Amino acid sequence: VVFWGQAVLATPFDIEELFANRLKKMMPPEVRVNGSDPSLWEWDGPDKDVKRGDKYVITLKSEDPLETPIKWVKEQDGDAADDGDDDYYMITGPFCDWEGERMEEGAVTGLRTYMAEVPENGLLEFRFLKNGEEDEVLSPPMDKCSKKTAPILGPAKEDKGREKNVWSVEGAAGSTIKIDLFVCRGKRSLMWMTV
After folding, report:
1. Whole-structure pTM value
2. What's residue 85's pLDDT?
3. How many Å apart are CA 111 and CA 106, to the nearest integer?
4. Contact at 8 Å (CB) between 113 and 106?
5. How far, CA to CA in Å, does 109 sit from each of 57, 87, 112, 115, 155?
6. How far is CA 41 from CA 56, 66, 77, 115, in A?
7. β-pair partners for 145
8. Is the dihedral of CA 87, 88, 91, 97 positive or negative?
9. Across residues 38-47, what is the average pLDDT?
10. Which of 67, 79, 111, 184 has its CA 20 to 30 A from that of 11?
């Protein structure tokens, strides 16, 4: 909050509290009705689709009466949320000789799916590569992790050796495991099941 004005008293004030109290006393933003369809109406408040990082200016003047409506003026657009649509993920492990195989895009933004056959030893081990890059590894915090709820680390080229860790899933040799990786807007999850 940027606050300009005259110092009347030498007493320190909580500027944010003063600003909030002044806003509470003011009238709500003005609405201009243009016909019977509310979607065509204009108002002096924030946009209906406010994004993280949007910046607005509210100007207060000491000579303005308290009945003055609040007027929000957009100063800067925030960054659009990164859904990761431009990224793809590959799964790699001993089952594919560490050659990495591209995961299929799922029905939900950020969901990637891969169907893997369990090797003869009954252990399916894997980790992920963002955009197929060896230096963008997604891995669990411990090696041979069998927990679906374990944190997903990375993408990182080096992470104290943890970039070599793999998830490990037990299953009957020859059975198919469906692996779902979800990465979108900073959220990550991993799921697998026998199909």
Report:
1. 0.62
2. 76
3. 5
4. yes
5. 34, 11, 9, 19, 19
6. 20, 25, 21, 50
7. 167
8. negative
9. 90
10. 67
Helix or strand or coil: residue 170?
strand
pLDDT, tens digit, for every residue of 84-103? 778 999 999 999 999 999 99
Tell me how far the alpha carbon of residue 189 is from its chain's centroid: 12
Q: CA-to-CA distance for 12 and 115, rounded, in angstroms?
A: 65
Q: Number of helices (H) and strands (E) in the chain: give both, helices first.
A: 1, 14
Amino acid at residue number 79:
D
DSSP 3-state of 158 = coil
Distance separating the N- and C-terminal Cα atoms of the chain: 56
Token code pair at residue 67: 């009945």
Where b means 16+ CB within 10 Å and e means fewer, 126-141 reads bbbbbeeeeebbbbbe
Looking at residue 133, its amino acid is E
Task: List % helix, strand, coil for the chain (3-state, nearest 5).
Answer: 10, 35, 55
Residue 18: CB atoms within 10 Å: 14
